[in-house]
Amino acid sequence: MPRPERSFRTQAIILKRRDFGEADRLLTVMTPEHGKLTLLAKGARKPTSHKSGHVELFTRVDMLVQRGRDLDIVSQAEMQMPYLALREDLGRGAYANYAVELLDRFTGADDDDFPGLFQLLDDTLNRLCLDDDPRLVVRYYEMRLLDMVGFRPELNTCVVSQEPIQAEDQFFSYPLGGVVSPAYAQVNAGLMPVTLLTLKLLRHMQRSAYSHVQSLSITPELHDETERLMLGYLTYLLERKLQSVDFIRRIRRQ
Known about the structure:
Layout: E1 7-20, E2 24-31, E3 35-41, E4 60-66, E5 72-81, H1 85-88, H2 90-106, H3 117-130, H4 134-149, E6 170-173, E7 178-180, E8 192-194, H5 196-207, H6 220-238, H7 243-253
Helix pairs in contact: 2-3, 2-4, 2-7, 3-4, 4-6
C-alpha cells in the first residue's frame, strides 16, 4: 500500500481565515483535487512573514502544503489571482462573501466529494469582478452548485403528478424540491407561487452555459422573485439562514 504523500502543491481559494495562537492563521480553502481543506499558516500574522500578503480572503493562491499530525501546514503560498474588484467594490465583495458562504455550508471539513466546485467558484469570483449584474452571477452560481451537490431543483415536471408542466404560472415545493402544477397545489401546503417568467429564467440558467445567460436583461421585479424562490429553497436545504444575505440587503438599501 503506497504511503500518503508528505507534501503536495495545489491551487486554493481562501474561503475563511481566523487567528490561531499568537501569530498563526487557520485557513479554510477550496482546492481542485483535494476538496475543502483546513490548513495552518504558521506565522502568517507577523509583519515580516512571506505568507501574510498571500493568504487574503477570496483570493486564489498557489500553495505547497505539508502533511501534519493534526493539521496540514502551508509551507509556501503565492497569490495567483487577487480578484481586486471584490475588495474595491463593497457590493461585489458582499456577493463574493455569499458565494463562499454557500459553498462552505454545502461541503464538510476535508470534503473532496464534489469535483468541479473549485472551478465553479473560481469562475464565479471572476464574473463578480467583471460582470455588470452580480445578482445574475449568483443566481447562475446557485443553480450550478445545486446540480453539483445533488439538490438540482425539478423545473420541468410536476413533482407530485410526475407530468410535464404546462406553460402557465406554477408553484414550488421546498420539501419536494421542485415545481407543483396548479391542479395539485390545493393538496400541498406551504407552496410558493412562481410565475412562468421566473420559471423560464431558472430553466434557462439550469440548462445553458453562462455565456448564453450573461446577456439577459433582468428587471428588478424578476430578480426579486427569483431571489426569493432560490433563497427559500437554499434556506430549507441548509436548515439555517445565510448570514451574508442580510449584509447584501443592507448594502442595497444604502
